[in-house]
Amino acid sequence: MNQLKSRTDALAELPGEAALPGTLSEELRAELIAFRRDLHMHPELGNQEFRTTAAIKDRLEKAGLKPRVLSIGTGLMCDVGEWDGVTPMLALRADIDALPIPDTKAGVSYRSTVPERAHACGHDVHTTTVLGAGLVLAGLARQGLLPRAVRLIFQPAEEVLPGGATDAIEAGVLEGVGRIIGVHCDPKVDVGRIGLRAGAITSACDRLEVSMDGPGGHTARPYLTTDLVTAAARVATDVPALLARRTDARSGLAVTWGRLETGHACNVIPQHAELSGTVRCLDLDAWREAPDLVHNAIDEVAGMHRAKTVINYVRGVPPVVNDAETVALLDAAMTGRRGSYAIEDTEQSLGGEDFSWYLEHVPGAMARLGVRTPGDTRGLDLHRGNFDVDEEAITVGVELFTAAALLNT
What we know:
CATH architecture of the largest domain: 3-Layer(aba) Sandwich
Number of strands: 16
Low-confidence stretches: 1-8, 10-19
Structural class: alpha/beta
Distance between the termini: 14 Å
Helix content: 25-40%
Radius of gyration: 24 Å
Number of helices: 10
CATH topology of the largest domain: Aminopeptidase
Strand order of the largest sheet: 1-2-4-3-5-16-6-15
Number of domains: 2
Shape: elongated
């Protein structure tokens, strides 16, 4: 931490633009807000982000950079500064996809123009902050003020399990990268502040689908068949309780069902039932054991009722486990820009984030970026159609990324 503090102090001695790393001109600030609004009006789902990819690529090329579209067809990466082939780069990551929900905001000019599509998780802000940081860092590189090359990663399909990060990694975005940072919009944090946490900051999230079958029969004679409705109900209630007794409570392993469907008539015992839900886990080691634990619990409960099961356990994402040194880097970067009052502790959430896949390969950290206007009592939340942000968050994100890049020497 002392070394990072000395680097922060040294930034003040740099001339011109670098005296305040990440300072935006009014012209660039206005451009970035317009860019974010354009993305917000034209949301694209995972692996369909062709317009978004083209818009990012065009702006980076206008800045004299050489972005490369990923081999998967959407998303791109771009190096700022010349990589020497040896010194590890810092990567700045943004996710670029939207959600399949309607935009229900009223009274804004940038409401989504695409039916049943919305940037309701803030990915338009994430994208714009990394783009803005790239543009500022490109200017510093031309002045010889960028200490080492930085890689920009614009990743598709974060909302699609197991996440587009896996495809981006296979496409080579981490080659030459020694550390990676990102942000996620947080509507519970005031704009101008960030939330930091060393260790796990999100949970693992997997998808679970269970098919159950039996011979069916008359509700007057359940003893002659498999009472599939009861069997499905028992799986729904008993499996989560059973898992709670087979794992350390501190791991937070939890199965939550979102759908249970079976039967069509009140006097007919059905032949088929389906359940689907999510498996969430706070602990990385417990997450790795979760598939076997869940399979065994379902088979045990279903077997008691003579139901046959087919289990489709879809691996999602592990927890995002922030590296302590990278958190210290973000802390120093934000402190250097806005003071220690701009940083707050944040809790581990039960949400999933495929940023975690990058951390399986290189150290890094994700910060929570405050997007709530101070005093706003509307209670806006992620993944809701009325979600919106205070656009000053774009400036804050650019400052954070740029200052971290200058400190990463």
